[in-house]
Specification:
The protein is an all-alpha fold. It is 71% helix and 0% strand. The chain starts with a helix and ends in a 7-residue tail after the last helix.
């Protein structure tokens, strides 16, 4: 991809219009610099490590335990890159630059352009700038973002919530984890007496719901909650039902939010502005197209007609 881009820029620098030639020459010089190649390789390494996690979090339905394992492995690999990845990374950058004949700066030289005091300027080397101010700084920022989004408390919450997952015939079910989930994260939603009752509900649930063949083919917490209601077992296990509903409010994935912002860019433009209520309704129809396909135009007209009496005949 890099070589193809360089080829196109070289062509535009010769054959393009006056404005294109100027932009192409400037971009070509930037892309053929050591700084650009160095940062490009850092981003390639980081995006390669985080790709699996990003793809997993984009899925509508995600196994919580698998997601948390990916978070843990991603953090570990990024930290490993920071601690031990400099030498191999720098060798890749040098090899790339040598292939394309891009000048490589002397790493032992003084980095005169670094913004520091005069007394410190001479002691800062080019290697220090690229290793500490760029390589380590970029990786530290990525780790900070992951730690902010997936703190230890958040990770523990999601891992404990996975004990309610009915997938693979309740393979992840653990009564102790469910009770700890209530104790640590939902203490105000259950009274002391209800916590005691929950222990016994979990014991009965293990021999009732978990053994019921009608519950063996479920794969998500949402399906389990619906099945409890349909079977009437939510009346027998009201505290477990409450626990399931609380877990269902956890935002495990950002896919729906990102789809909404992407849809808004298409629907709401400078030339097509609209009120908030109408925009909200329009976006629901646009985003949830799987649901809207189930409705026909006649059904919508009939529903609109039934809202109130109208002078116009439909």
């Amino acid at each position: 991809m890099y070589n193809a881009t360089i080829t196109v820029l070289e062509h535009l620098a010769v054959e393009g219009s006056a404005a294109q030639r100027g932009d192409a020459i400037y971009t070509f010089k930037a892309m053929m610099s050591f700084d650009f190649v160095f940062i490009l390789h850092v981003m390639k390494e980081l995006m390669g490590i985080t790709d699996k996690l990003c793809q997993a979090l984009q899925q509508k339905s995600q196994d919580i335990l698998n997601a948390m394992c990916l978070v843990s492995s991603t953090k570990t690999l990024i930290q490993k890159l920071r601690d031990f990845g400099w030498d191999s990374h720098f060798e890749k950058v040098k090899s790339f630059c040598n292939t394309l004949k891009i000048p490589i700066p002397d790493m032992s030289a003084s980095f005169a352009d670094l913004i520091r005091s005069r007394r410190q300027m001479d002691s800062v080397t080019v290697e220090h700038h690229y290793r500490v101010d760029l390589f380590n700084a970029i990786i530290d920022y990525q780790l900070k973002e992951l730690n902010n989004r997936f703190s230890e408390q958040t990770t523990e919450l999601l891992v404990l919530s996975a004990a309610l997952n009915p997938n693979d015939a309740f393979k992840s079910y653990n009564a102790d984890d469910i009770y700890n989930l209530v104790e640590k994260f939902y203490p105000s939603d259950f009274s002391t007496q209800e916590k005691t009752q929950l222990e016994y509900e979990l014991q009965h649930d293990e021999f009732d719901v978990l053994k019921d063949v009608n519950f063996q083919m479920l794969s998500t917490v949402g399906e389990l909650c619906q099945k409890l209601v349909k079977s009437g077992k939510s009346n027998s296990y009201p505290l477990i039902d409450r626990m399931l509903r609380l877990v269902l409010t956890l935002p495990v994935s950002t896919a729906t939010t990102e789809r909404a912002f992407s849809a808004m860019k298409i629907i709401k433009t400078r030339l097509r502005n609209m009120e908030d209520d109408f925009l909200k309704d329009y976006m629901i129809v646009y985003i949830e197209d799987e649901i809207t396909e189930k409705f026909t135009s006649n059904e919508i007209v009939d529903e609109f007609k039934c809202i109130q009496s109208r002078r116009v005949h439909f």
